[in-house]
Amino acid sequence: MKATWFNSFGSAKDVMQIGTQPKPSANHGEVLIKLSTSGVNPSDVKKRAGAFPNLLDNGLVIPHSDGAGVIESVGEGVDIDRVGERVWVYQAQYGRLLGTAAEYIALDSTRAVKLPDNTDFNVGACLGIPVMTAHRCVFSDGDIVNQTVLVTGGAGRVGYYAIQWAKIAGAKVIATASNAEDRSLCLSLGASAVVNHRESNWSKQVLEATGGEKINRVIDVEFGMNLPEVLECIATNGVIATYSSTVVKEPQLPFIRMMFMDITLRMVIVYAMPESAKLQAIHDINKALEQEKLQHRIAHILPLERIADSHQLIEKGGFGGCVIVKIDDHSA
């Protein structure tokens, strides 16, 4: 099968190889999928760059955890009726070496979710990390109907979906964005107000937007950098759900202040979510897809031969939306 892999760490152009690898087969409890698309996420790029030094101890890595395609065969213990099923894939390269940047993948059948007929393979490759992460951040700590939710970086890959999940759940949403285009996008997704997180004391703008009412939940893309402002506008008993802290990698917590506010701090990474949370996210994602309640953004679609460019796009940043690697010409 055609595939991309790396067996050393470094820049995408230097270490990513394109060629052929053995076609896998479905073992017990697995499905074999002919992939159409592979989603590229920041975690994939970090792995290739060497964020996990032991990753290559047991062999080469075919990168990427998200993707979509068609089940070609099933292993023992899997319903034969799944053959021919269109699926979206998540966690394909978590705790294992062989991900979705290849023509085929064999993996646990539970990680291959039926893709609604009205959803194409490009969108299918966006669902695993961005949409499931956003779902966990929004729903991990109980009902949010009629609550006020702050989504920092609302135009980002996860924030984009967090705004939508919060609106679907009946919350009032305030978002942050740093330019007029992103502000308009957040408003179009359902945010009632958008403040600029690059301005000093932006928490005051949040409180002005809420009429002085403090925030119940925060979905945060830059925990360490944003924490001082968040603490100025979050309510007692509030929840901060964060999935990244890139600028301030080892933030210090004002423990006493947060303790006396009874703040809940939840750190989210999709791979470690409880299985029950993953199942709930899958259920809600597919229901929302079937009902066409989620908007999607595909920023770039590149052929497998340009997979190194896809990694460089993620590293460079400066855009919103998913980056997709096209594996073959499956119809939507």
Structural write-up:
Strands 3, 4, 5, 6, 7, 14 and 15 form a 7-stranded mixed sheet that branches. The chain has 2 domains: 2-126 and 296-326, Quinone Oxidoreductase, Chain A, domain 1, CATH 3.90.180.10; 130-269, Rossmann fold (3-Layer(aba) Sandwich), CATH 3.40.50. Strand 12 (234-242), helix 9 and strand 13 (264-267) form a beta-alpha-beta unit. The protein is globular and about 60 Å long. The model has no long low-confidence stretch (mean pLDDT 96). Helix 7 packs across helix 8. By secondary structure, the protein is of the alpha/beta class. The chain starts with a strand and ends in a 6-residue tail after the last strand. The protein is 31% helix and 25% strand. It has helices at residues 12-15, 42-49, 121-124, 127-139, 157-168, 180-189, 202-209, 223-233, 255-260, 275-290, 307-316; strands at 2-5, 17-20, 30-40, 66-74, 86-89, 104-108, 112-114, 148-151, 172-176, 193-195, 215-220, 234-242, 264-267, 298-303, 322-326. The protein is built from 11 helices and 15 strands.
List keywords for this structure.
332 residues; oxidoreductase activity; NAD(P)-bd_dom_sf; single chain; ER; 7-stranded mixed sheet; Quinone Oxidoreductase, Chain A, domain 1; 31% helix; NADP; Zinc-binding dehydrogenase; Rossmann fold
How would a crystallographer describe the biggest sheet? 7 strands, mixed
The gross shape turns out to be globular
**Unreliable parts:** none
CATH arch. level architecture of the largest domain: Alpha-Beta Complex
In what range is the share of β-strand residues? Answer: 15-25%
Helix content: 25-40%
Keywords: NADP
Protein name: Zinc-binding dehydrogenase
Organism: SAR86 cluster bacterium BACL1 MAG-120920-bin57
Pfam families: ADH_N (PF08240), ADH_zinc_N (PF00107)
